[in-house]
Structures are given as structure tokens and as C-alpha cells.
Predict the 3D structure of the following.
Amino acid sequence: MARRLRVFLDYDDTITVGGVGDFLIEDLGDGSHLELWRSYMEGRLTLKELDARQYTLIQATEQEMAAYVAKKARVRDGFHELLQFCRSHEVPVAIITGGLENYVKPLLEREGVTGIPVFGNRVRFGGPRGHPVAVEMPNASPRPEFCDYCACCKTFVMARLREHPDEEFVFVGDGSTDFCPSTFARHVFARRRLLRYCRENGVAHTPFETFHEVRAGLARLLGVENP
Ligand SMILES: [Mg+2]
């Protein structure tokens, strides 16, 4: 039987070049993110606490934020070709982000990408100015089965999406919230901090800088031609 793969893509600095969440907070925030980021780096805030607060610093309505993302975000080379390859080989793809679904969707719309499920956190817009007022975490892990480190538990999302016992997961990512789901995957495509993590922890991986390398690696895993 043909191998059954399912591909999970991280968003910030994986699908995109650079972190969209970071530039939204830096460009549209009120400047107080630096103190929050310092508190997180010094261990005075957990990642979950940081995420609950940092996105509410964005001074923009939902429409303004979507327009800014559509104008500024860049997609990593080979993204469309990878999606096309997965479609033609019936490999399901999902996007899992430790950031916000709110800033994934405007980019997918701009790129004309449809039918890919997105799992992450969400901001609720409100108040007199219609800016973010709260961060919702619909994909937080149920405890005690999973740990409580990330606002969006990528490993929990992956476990929930498993449809067949023989399905093999492929994870594509770059950052620290990708460490845990990578150990749950059959194969990992890694860059940046995730690449170092895979090397240091013996996780089966392929380094990548563009999605052309990911597509070629997937073709090898499936044993098919890479167009
Ligand atoms: Mg990332």
C-alpha cells in the first residue's frame, strides 16, 4: 500500500519569510512589547502568558491588521509548488501556528490558497476602537496528557487530526514551539532553531531553506517523481 503521509506546516518564519506576529507587534504595537519580551526571556513570564498579552498590544482593527499582513508578509519560495504537489498526491496539509489564525488567513487569501485548515490562537477585536481585546486559545492542550507550555499545543492538534493508525506525520518548522511536535513526526523539515534541536536530539530531519527542498524530500518519502 502507498505510504499515507500528512503534512503539518508552521507559519511564522516557515511559510513566511520572517515572523508576521513579530512585525505586527513591532510595527502596530504601542512599544510596550519590549518589556514583555524581556520578561519572557528572563523567565518572569511563560510563553502562554506572553501570548495572552502581546497580541493585545496591536493598535489596529481586524481589517487594518489583515490589510497590513496582505501588504507586508512574504511567502517562502516554493510554497505554491509544495501545495500543488501535495494536492496531486492526495497528501493532506494543515497549518499549525503558535501565533494567530487572524494573520494567517489574510495571507492565504492574498495568495489564493483555499482548503487548508489553520490551527492557532485567535484575537477577539472589540472595545471602542475595535482593536484586539483578548487572546483566545482554542487549541490549548488538555492536561495532564500534554504539557502546558504553548498557547497552541501543536502536538495536541496533530494527535486530534490523526485519521488512520498507519498515517505518518511530516512536520515543517523552525522555532521552539516546533520542538515537541517534531518528536511526534515521522520526518521533519527543519531550519533555524528547530534544525539545531533535531541535530542535538537525533530527530530524523532534512534541513531546508525553501519549499522546493521540502517538496523534493516528500517525493523521496513517497517514492514518487518530483516534477
Ligand atoms: Mg515558526
